[in-house]
Specification:
The protein has about 210 residues and is of the alpha/beta class. It has one domain (about 5-205): Phosphoglycerate mutase-like (Rossmann fold, 3-Layer(aba) Sandwich), CATH 3.40.50. It has helices spanning about 15-20, 35-45, 60-70, 100-105, 115-135, 145-155; strands at about 5-10, 55-60, 80, 140-145, 170-175, 180-185, 195-200. The longest helix has 17 residues, at about 115-135.
């Protein structure tokens, strides 16, 4: 299983596909200027982290890579690409309006000619295990909304797909949580919202029936 170590994870900044409200999946949809500004805004947050990441890992898709590179301007730490962190390959639904692929955005219906949810979760598990096994210090993973949801599914959790662009999350080991062994914190820009705990990975009614 994935080592229960401390790490940070963030979804990429806003993309052209986000603005158009279409499924990007493995399509290389670039950041908008607003998306780049969102990534620049995270620089101020990472500068003030009490425990800073020692390395950054991002998917090969430009929206994650460019977000990571912009954030790293404030950290100047080693940065690596890992294709296993890519978004769900949505097959025939790539480029489709959100309304046509809700069964994938909010559930786990396998898309026609795409990746199955089991295949997706298997590569996420492999990526996180490899990354966390190799680093004792916290790292930052810059990836995609589907990767957040898939991370939950690995632990039997149906995590809602509500991960806004460029919101930093901290996963802090908490072994008392038997099902999902982390406490999760979200970072905001306001002083009173700089680090707030979220239960998005711990809501029992969101468990997937197995």
């Amino acid at each position: 299983m994935i080592p229960a170590k401390k790490f940070y994870m963030i979804r990429h900044g806003e993309t052209n596909a986000n603005v158009k409200r279409v499924m990007a999946g493995s399509i290389d949809s670039p950041l908008t200027e607003n998306g780049r500004n969102q990534a620049r805004a995270i620089q101020g947050i990472v500068k003030n982290l009490e425990i800073k990441p020692a390395a950054i890992f991002h998917s090969h898709l430009s929206r994650a890579r460019d977000t990571a590179q912009i954030i790293n301007e404030a950290l100047n730490i080693p940065i690596y690409e890992n294709k296993l962190l890519a978004e769900f390959h949505a097959g025939d639904w790539e480029g489709a309006p959100y309304e046509e692929c809700q069964s994938l955005l909010t559930g786990w219906k396998n898309p026609p000619n795409g990746e199955t949810s089991d295949e997706f979760c298997s590569r996420i598990r492999q990526a996180k295990k490899e990354i966390l096994d190799a680093h004792d210090e916290p790292v930052m993973i810059v990836s995609h909304g589907g990767v957040f949801r898939g991370f939950g599914k690995i632990y039997g959790l149906n995590v809602p797909g509500k991960f806004p662009n460029c919101h930093l999350h901290e996963f802090d080991p908490h072994h008392e949580n038997k099902r999902f062994p982390w406490k999760v914190y979200r970072y905001g820009h306001a002083p009173d919202e700089f680090r707030i705990e979220t239960d998005i990975f711990h809501s029992s009614e969101d468990w997937i029936e197995e």
